[in-house]
Amino acid sequence: MKPADCFLHCPKCGQPAAQPGSAPFHCASCGFLFYFNPAIAVGAVLLAPDDTVLLIRRAKDPHQGKLTVPGGFVDAGEAAEDALRREIREEVGLSIERLDYFCSLPNSYPYRGVTYQVLDYFFVGRVDSKAVRTEPGEVTEACWLPRDQIRLDEIAFDSVREMLRRFIG
């Protein structure tokens, strides 16, 4: 289900939607207008001194058990780079100073029966050490892989798969 399909009534005045599922949502009764903009997420290709790439195995759905790069959603009022540094600390216990923008790609994120549209921003960062501390609720495994050993069919999200395809070259 798309987020627009969830608006059967106006969230401002409570009147039934004249056109359920339309985007943007416009209430004919009170004029309330709601745009369904994408959520923002970030991810990082982290490179070790030997040029291996850090991939993490997801501990929960969507795509539980699949590989992805460290990252997550940007909170309101948070810059993308700050959100990515926070997510990297939370998921693998690493502190990253420099992050270089790589690309952005659209994605979808199915969660509790609703498929959210997401815009993913990807960055590249370097670390001095491969010593990671994973967060068990988020990550079941951390893998440092040479670029030529990354199997795109094991990657959790379409946007991450496409970004890695571009990165690997």
Features:
single chain; 169 residues; alpha+beta; Nucleoside Triphosphate Pyrophosphohydrolase; 4-stranded mixed β-sheet; 3-stranded antiparallel β-sheet; 2 helices
Kindly describe this structure:
The chain is of the alpha+beta class and 169 residues long. The protein folds into two domains: 1-36, no CATH class; 39-168, Nucleoside Triphosphate Pyrophosphohydrolase, CATH 3.90.79. 14% of the residues lie in helices and 33% in strands. The protein contains two helices and nine strands; from the N terminus they run E-E-E-E-E-E-H-E-E-E-H. The strands form three sheets. It has a four-stranded mixed beta sheet, with helices on both faces. It has a three-stranded antiparallel beta sheet with strand order 5-4-9, with no helix packed on it. A two-stranded antiparallel ribbon has the order 1-2. A hairpin with a 6-residue loop joins strand 1 and strand 2 (33-34). The protein is elongated and about 60 Å long. The two termini are 35 Å apart.
